[in-house]
Amino acid sequence: MQLSDSLVQAEVALQALSEALVGTDANALEARSMDLRDAFMSLAVLSQQHGRSGQTLDAGLQQRIAAVGRQLGPLREQLARASAMTGSKVSTLLPAQSTSPTYDALSGRTPRTSPARIYRSAS
């Protein structure tokens, strides 16, 4: 795979993730995130290999790589906001679990830490 092909793949994955953020399908968002990660890993490896060979990038390719980098920052912020909103919604639907059992708190007794009587007699 050429560096330019890998860059095209990263650009497409970046656009697909941006579109998935607008929707409400969590599975699509996760899949597009994985696609973007894979595309950037491929781009990083090929870019590193290209740099080791001593070849310089042409100006057009450098500009496209810089543009992808500029798009990545705001996209990360959008993902962080979406993650925070999801966490907030989940905490609303599923409140934090208390450390004491449900009915012990209502009885006013201190919670038992030993096994129930039925199990003590068996031992």
Brief overview:
With 123 residues, the protein is mainly α. It has helices at 3-22, 26-52, 59-93, 102-107, 117-122.
Structure characterization notes:
- The structure is a single chain.
- The protein has 123 residues and is mainly alpha-helical.
- The chain has a domain of 84 residues.
- It is built from five helices and no strands.
- Helix 1 packs antiparallel against helix 2.
- The radius of gyration is 26 Å and the shape is elongated.
- The mean pLDDT is 83.
Task: Give the secondary structure arrangement, pairings included.
Layout: H1 3-22, H2 26-52, H3 59-93, H4 102-107, H5 117-122
Helix pairs in contact: 1-2, 1-3
Straight-line distance between termini: 67 Å
Overall radius of gyration = 26 Å
Q: What is the string of SSEs from the N terminus onward?
A: HHHHH
Mean pLDDT, as a whole number?
83
**Share of residues in helices:** over 70%
Envelope shape: elongated
Largest sheet: none
Structure summary, number of beta strands: 0
Poorly predicted runs are none
